Hints:
This protein has strands spanning 2-10, 18-21, 27-51, 57-73, 79-81, 86-91, 97-107. It is mainly β.
Amino acid sequence: MANIYKNAFFDPADTANTVIYAPDTQTRAIIQNIQITNTGGSATVRAYVFDNSNSNTATLVAYANITGPTICNIAKGPIVLEESDTLVLSSTSNTTISGTVSILEVNRGLLQQ
């Protein structure tokens, strides 16, 4: 079983939902942090998990109204993504918001070797 630590970055071009990360069909992932930076003004940030095993049903897993300048973690605990789930972020501002997501990948395909 291989563990890989990685980051995924959020720098939205618009206010639409943005796919941040999706593990492949052999990988599960643990999201530790969703760190959001707001350089000024006010914005709302939302994080959704689209559950591949449930017809891609969207579940709101984190939500924050952020007044800047500030940095905050909107994930208040670990979020587990199963194979082919998708983490999506959206923001009401595309000029002051950016962020990073800390991820631990666990490749389950290596268990079968």
